[in-house]
Amino acid sequence: xxxxxxxxxxxxxxxxxxxxxxxxxxxxxxxxxxxxxxxxxxxxxxxxxxxxxxxxxxxxxxxxxxxxxxxxxxxxxxxxxxxxxxxxxxxxxxxxxxxxxxxxxxxxxxxxxxxxxxxxxxxxxxxxxxxxxxxxxxxxxxxxxxxxxxxxxxxxxxxxxxxxxxxxxxxxxxxxxxxxxxxxxxxxxxxxxxxxxxxxxxxxxxxxxxxxxxxxxxxxxxxxxxxxxxxxxxxxxxxxxxxxxxxxxxxxxxxxxxxxxxxxxxxxxxxxxxxxxxxxxxxxxxxxxxxxxxxxxxxxxxxxxxxxxxxxxxxxxxxxxxxxxxxxxxxxxxxxxxx
Amino acid sequence: xxxxxxxxxxxxxxxxxxxxxxxxxxxxxxxxxxxxxxxxxxxxxxxxxxxxxxxxxxxxxxxxxxxxxxxxxxxxxxxxxxxxxxxxxxxxxxxxxxxxxxxxxxxxxxxxxxxxxxxxxxxxxxxxxxxxxxxxxxxxxxxxxxxxxxxxxxxxxxxxxxxxxxxxxxxxxxxxxxxxxxxxxxxxxxxxxxxxxxxxxxxxxxxxxxxxxxxxxxxxxxxxxxxxxxxxxxxxxxxxxxxxxxxxxxxxxxxxxxxxxxxxxxxxxxxxxxxxxxxxxxxxxxxxxxxxxxxxxxxxxxxxxxxxxxxxxxxxxxxxxxxxxxxxxxxxxxxxxxxxxxxxxxxxxxxxxxxxxxxxxxxxxxxxxxxxxxxxxxxxxxxxxxxxxxxxxxxxxxxxxxxxxxxxxxxxxxxxxxxxxxxxxxxxxxxxxxxxxxxxxxxxxxxxxxxxxxxxxxxxxxxxxxxxxxxxxxxxxxxxxxxxxxxxxxxxxxxxxxxxxxxxxxxxxxxxxxxxxxxxxxxxxxxxxxxxxxxxxxxxxxxxxxxxxxxxxxxxxxx
Amino acid sequence: xxxxxxxxxxxxxxxxxxxxxxxxxxxxxxxxxxxxxxxxxxxxxxxxxxxxxxxxxxxxxxxxxxxxxxxxxxxxxxxxxxxxxxxxxxxxxxxxxxxxxxxxxxxxxxxxxxxxxxxxxxxxxxxxxxxxxxxxxxxxxxxxxxxxxxxxxxxxxxxxxxxxxxxxxxxxxxxxxxxxxxxxxxxxxxxxxxxxxxxxxxxxxxxxxxxxxxxxxxxxxxxxxxxxxxxxxxxxxxxxxxxxxxxxxxxxxxxxxxxxxxxxxxxxxxxxxxxxxxxxxxxxxxxxxxxxxxxxxxxx
Lengths: 339, 559, 300
Known about the structure:
The complex is a heterotrimer. By secondary structure, chain A is of the alpha+beta class. Chain A has helices at 33-44, 78-93, 126-134, 158-168, 175-179, 181-185, 192-202, 210-217, 231-235, 242-255, 262-276, 285-297, 299-307, 322-338, and strands at residues 2-9, 19-26, 63-66, 69-72, 107-110, 117-119, 122-123. Chain A has a five-stranded mixed beta sheet with strand order 2-1-5-3-4. The longest helix of chain A has 17 residues, at 322-338. By secondary structure, chain B is α/β, with parallel strands linked by helices. Chain B contains 16 helices and 21 strands. In chain B, the strands form five sheets. In chain B, strands 1, 2, 6, 7, 8, 9 and 16 form a seven-stranded mixed beta sheet that branches. In chain B, strands 17-15-10-20-21 form a five-stranded mixed beta sheet. A four-stranded antiparallel beta sheet of chain B has the order 11-14-13-12, covered by helices on one side. By secondary structure, chain C is α/β, with parallel strands linked by helices. In chain C, strand 1 (8-12), helix 1 (22-35) and strand 2 form a beta-alpha-beta unit. In chain C, helix 1 (22-35) packs across helix 12, helix 6 crosses helix 7 (137-143) and helix 9 (209-225) crosses helix 11. The radius of gyration of chain C is 19 Å and the shape is globular. The N and C termini of chain C lie far apart (39 Å). Chains A and C meet through helix 2, helix 6, helix 9, helix 10 and helix 11 of A and helix 2, helix 3, helix 5, strand 6 and helix 9 of C.
């Protein structure tokens, strides 16, 4: 099959900005985008730089943005990417999919986002790895002096292993990190990869540092800065529920009594609302989350919202049959206390 | 000049395990690696790691299986060390946090593997190497081990007295060639099977450490023994032996479980060389599927177990072969996979020919695998001898007041060589030479070899070497130039290929994974010995050295 | 539950559409009335938890949403939502209750305290999906009274109606088209710009305002730069982020924006000939006058 690619080229020593360079390659059926990149490098242009190793989705080297979406090049079928490129072009041109001939739009390959580019498709991963190291991604056991000559393995039941098994599959490939919009908006945000790594150890029954891990992650650029957009879960090449893992970290942190972060307070306010009226008390939410000074400092916004008739009432009218909900809540909490 | 007590080249499981051991022994460690540590090929190992953990098992039984698996070429004193150390080294991994799959009672689970008389392969689903690699890397992070990531080592440097003095390495990020001095050097650069077309290895497994040691005058051993993994997918990506261990069966185009002809007792769980040859014979006899495949049928295992413990296999089958193993058999074929041979070292990982030089993992040859390696013993080899090499290198380095003399001319000389290479404007690029080499080796020095085929192979390699002498590098820049290191890798492959051909041609017998169609029998009388390769200007000189036999006298080997 | 041709739903407004985005509720009811989509409000249905309750009290979250699902099941109707977050939370809870027998048992134990039991029979859908998939652009085009010709509308999906895609089966999460199809059906011109599937930042706008504003500002700036007269969104929280906080976004980027944000049923409602006041187009922070004047309409 013949395939056309627009590949991002950038040498900061000579170029002011990245540019797309077009390459046309002949590929066998079933070829992946990585095979295409290798073909370009081997036959057309040896100066093209990209990372790769295992070519079957376990080493995490070859993460790039294809048609604007981060993924592993070695698991992207060229034929599928060609179709996607055409469908996206149809959307951009405002026409239906069948109006754009499949194969007429090049497949775009660019480096991952949220990282500086060293050259072409190779990004600088220094900040990425620094954030991973920050969560202390190693086992912190109760008995570090355990001796393999004398002591057996630490016990772990299969159900406990299941918790670790999904989390441990993180390749540290950078796909989730690349796509995270909170990270783009706030470069100091620790990011989904570090949180996924933290989760792997927090839920491992052999690790006893959960509280201190969660305490660190509850800081300014920690787990509460996640915007819950699910892009990380959606794009993860190993189908890890990254956002789901971050959600669980929030739950565990809250359980540990780590509730001083506005994000934690914000969540707590929703539970209060359910108990008080069954619906969100929007007026009290900012106060409960950020306190009186913050709320007062936003007086201008409040006025603007009030003028548009959008100011929530100070007291939320309860939902009908609110005591039905209250009974459900009470029973849930009682059952959980018992467990 | 950068200097460390112990310098480790390679950050796969053997290199990282060595780094941990040396750091814990209190010496200063530096690790050079051409890819980020978690990208190392170790992550591709799926099946598991062997150890006689159970009360019903014993290291002696494990030792026997390994000796027999090696077709009696393995050095039994070394195998005894490995199998005795196995339990504590596997438990040590768990203590470090490695998430092994478990039994209901919370103990480490073990599964059957090829050539083993007992289910002694500890595993983590089918991502065993992956979790071990990540665990070891995280342990290195905890210890603050110094890594030089994306550095390509080009030369082993010896002192005027012939001791290990350090290496030269290119920082790929900026193209600068550095001299790195050390008291001890541990080579742990992993696999070399990219000498062959269709290899299961990662793209960058080019035997760099073996080649640079060889060029520095250190002996290689047994490199003619190349293992073909029986179940590789169409592009070389392997399907773990565990798939057979869990109950998967091999079937030819006539629907026959043909292994009953070749290994009536162990069937699909015979040792890898036996199974690969069986498949090759079935395919050659016209009983293979179109394209030259055999079917691996996992349906007897059951969908639930597959999704639990072989989930990566399932994903890879669906992605690469377009087949869901819960529903259909997977087309596979024998695939170049592992080098039993490598840099010659002893049970401490120390080179007998060069003081201060150590090696561990696949790049080394002690030999614990002899003529054929059992599945599950490679991860074990890396962990046990990675640790031992780290410990030994630490002890050795403490015995030196200062590092051996690093010749002043080494760095400028190498810089000149590289400049000459890069400046060359005419000539072919390395990629075509590499592809031709790989195809040649698969065709002529593959599962079945003959004097004729090897002779052709050797001639072909020499011709390719000659062309390589005039090779051109496309990328003239310094910033993240990957063309230069890849070109140098092809040079390494050529050297190793030359050794394989020479040694395979000389060895006129069939043993383990070395199968001569013109000498189909094992010949202990003449050939119960290791091949040792030493670099000369005219190509490798092949000598021989005896095998250490202690407990188990060589017997007929059948499964 | 309901037959495909019978578009009758339990109408789950969510909290915000009754308070800070009442225009969404008004427009939804007006549009559904015209199109013959039958809505039955759920006055006893609790807040969906907004993803916040899920984060700190997941079992409570499941139980509370199970109550909503059970109420609809008792009425024999599927649920129609008008908010991305309500839609996702109810659908996630529903999936959990259907896939995990232990979770269902736990939830039903709690529901029994209020005399309910959930059997898994309720479907949860969103107004966007009903218009695109069940009602369909063809029928919509036929119902249009006033084609919104010349109006350039930038579709903004937000995240939670696309992702996770396992729970959001209607659109391709990387290349959706439902909003574009509806924009075209009403005669307007969809504007292509970078950011239509990005996150507006609303979930952290209170706890991390600066970060959230940077996120929304890029979306607004890109849409404006691409020539949009307005943005249309199917989520009231995205609406608040892009509309109520637009001035903050202007300050963050240093660009003047003045880009009106329309709720999905407001866009459709204008094309159906519903008067702007009935669609509460006066209830926005960023005035919709520019949109209306382009259509030759006034706020009556």
